[in-house]
Amino acid sequence: MSALRLPQWALPALGAVLVAMAALSDWRLAAILAAWFGAWGVNALMAGTGRSGAVPFVVPFIFGATLLGLWEMVVRLYEISPIILPAPSAIWAEMRASTGILWADFQQTILKGALSGYAIGCGAAFLMALAVDRSGFLQRGLLPVGNFIAALPIVGTAPIFVMWFGFGWQSKAAVVVAMVFFPMLVNCVQGLKASDAMQRDLMRTYSASYTQTLLKLRLPTALPFIFNGLKICTTLALIGAIVAEFFGSPTVGMGFRIKIEMGRLAMDMVWAEIAVAALAGSGFYGLVVLIERRLTFWHPSQRRG
Amino acid sequence: MTEAAAPVMYGPKSAARWVGRVSGAVLPILTVVAAIIAVWYGAAVGMNRAWTLDQMERRGLEMSAIQIMADAMNQDRPVLPTPHQVFGELWNTTMGEPLMRERRGELQGNPRNLIFHAYHTLAPTLMGFAIGAALGVLLAVGIVHNRAMDMSVMPWAIASQTIPILAIAPIIVVVVSNLPVLNAAVDNGVISEEMKLLIPKALISSYLSFFPVVVGMVAGLRSPRAMDLDLMRTWSASRGQTFWKLRLPASVPFLFTSLKVSIAAALVGTIVAELPTGARFGLGARLLTGSYYGQTIQIWSALFMAAICAAALVVILGAVEKAVLRRMGARP
């Protein structure tokens, strides 16, 4: 793979030269660059040892920790005002200090708004896909229209739903339903079409009923598509629930808190909410991926080489 | 034989093909669209009727069912505006208003015109899309060629998308507009003040649009089969040659598919960026003022304008894709 034909020491040397040049003008920049190249070197060495054992987890961890470390260094060394950008340590302190508020906001926005909307929207889209699937005519009509609607900025319906369903979590769930419905529908309809004509013929020669064909052939082959839709929808659900709170909410919720604390310039609280949202989003996504691995272990994309 | 030799332009064969195409693709789509419009009218009557009935009772009027229906379809501030109201408003605010107007002796854009707002949303969208697409392609090239980058960047690229963008939109606006580099650039006349206001919105939309490009391009650059890569090796092609002559051409169909997703995401990003930042112009600002003053027809027309913009951008990219693929010798 070393077709670039650079000697082994070329890249580290380049890094060292950059650090030295930076040191001549600004020692702080040199320190930041040195930390970056050092961590990158460790990562490159680790990645060079292959994909076995803990390496696939350690490498991204080091990368993330490096980014956080650089952020902290930039804020401290250049004495950036906490109103513009608080340091990760300050955000962490704020998260520890106001766990109660964060937990209440998390319950309101993620558990009530996003998750209920996600479940209703994805469930309804799945049932709709099953219904549409029986008619080729409807499929041909719905796929282009659904693809078109899935590309629209549905987030914009948030003010309308807040007007209709009030300030409570119900309006947030409604926005989430509208956002996840079409991406999920399109993926489900495509997935249900994914089985080969040959395989369906085989089921017919076994004189399998519609339900049997569905359960034993078509749903399993649709699973990769369905999970693709579910994964896309996790992010959409969080965005929808938080955006909707900007148009009106009770005095609790992540979007509400971000809006209020922004106005008070309490940026460490804003970033604490963002950290919670990012953790919740990654956790939610990770959970769907884990379920996908358990259910579609047979699919080529899940094979580990 | 003689019949088959000449291409029949309007003969029965092409007519049959045309009919086949209509019944195969157009008719189902029209049916679904008609069904959506019918449901929409039904829902509008159902949701707006309460107000009409209320008014009727207060004024002691007698109205027939048809009159009630007609009134429910034509209210000033309906709960759900009907399609003809929305499209009427769209027409009035695009064609019925002058695009420019005179103000303080200067010719300026007219904020009553929806095209003016669409322009203020599209400019940062296109800028953000350009930044996002370029960044996405660069990251993908790095990921494919450098194993350390592959292992460290990809998980964080996924994690970055789970951060709800709206949450960081106000912060990005504050941080970016206070960047010393940017202020210096404005002072030295490198960029205009207007450009500076555009940059935060563009950055937010690029944040949403880089991800689909990374995913699509990584898949595309890895799409050449092992056999093709081996062939390049037997020709002792360098990494650069393999990239330019095999990987990059093979990735083009993937690139365009992800660009279409990405430009739609960029538009969502710009609209969302306008919401919490108090933007005065733009489709997002229009949504926000509409929701403050209960102008439902204005909200819906802004929403449809955004939809039209998204559709137009995707269609343009589709046309570019077709042209590029044809130049590259793909079968039409």
Summarize the structure.
In chain A, α5 packs parallel to α8, α6 packs across α8 and α7 packs across α8.
Give the end-to-end Cα distance of chain A, rounded to a whole number of Å. 18 Å
- CATH architectural name of the largest domain in chain B: Orthogonal Bundle
Low-confidence stretches of chain B: 1-9
**Mind telling me which CATH architecture of the largest domain in chain A this is?**
Orthogonal Bundle
CATH topology of the largest domain in chain A: MetI-like fold
Percent of sequence in beta strands of chain A: under 5%
Tell me the Rg of chain A in angstroms. Answer: 25 Å
The largest beta-sheet of chain B arranges its strands as 1-2
Order of helices and strands of chain A: HHHHHHHHHHHH
The SSE string of chain B, one letter per element, is HHHHEEHHHHHHHHH
Domains of chain A, number: 2
**Strand count, sense and closure of the main sheet of chain B?**
2 strands, antiparallel
Structural class of chain A: mainly alpha
Helix content, binned percent of chain B: over 70%
Describe the main β-sheet of chain A briefly. Answer: none
Rg of chain B, nearest Å: 26 Å
Number of helices of chain B: 13
Helix content estimate of chain A: over 70%
Which word captures the global form of chain A? flat
Q: Characterize the overall form of chain B.
A: globular
Per-chain topology:
The complex is a heterodimer of chains A (305) and B (332).
Chain A: H1 10-25, H2 27-48, H3 55-77, H4 88-97, H5 99-133, H6 136-150, H7 158-165, H8 169-192, H9 197-205, H10 210-245, H11 254-263, H12 267-295
Helix pairs in contact in A: 1-2, 2-3, 4-12, 5-8, 5-10, 6-8, 7-8, 7-10, 8-10, 10-12, 11-12
Chain B: H1 2-5, H2 12-59, H3 65-73, H4 83-94, E1 100-103, E2 106-109, H5 114-145, H6 147-162, H7 165-177, H8 180-187, H9 193-221, H10 226-234, H11 239-274, H12 283-292, H13 296-327
Antiparallel strand pairs in B: 1-2
Helix pairs in contact in B: 2-3, 4-13, 5-6, 5-9, 5-11, 5-12, 5-13, 7-9, 9-11, 11-13, 12-13
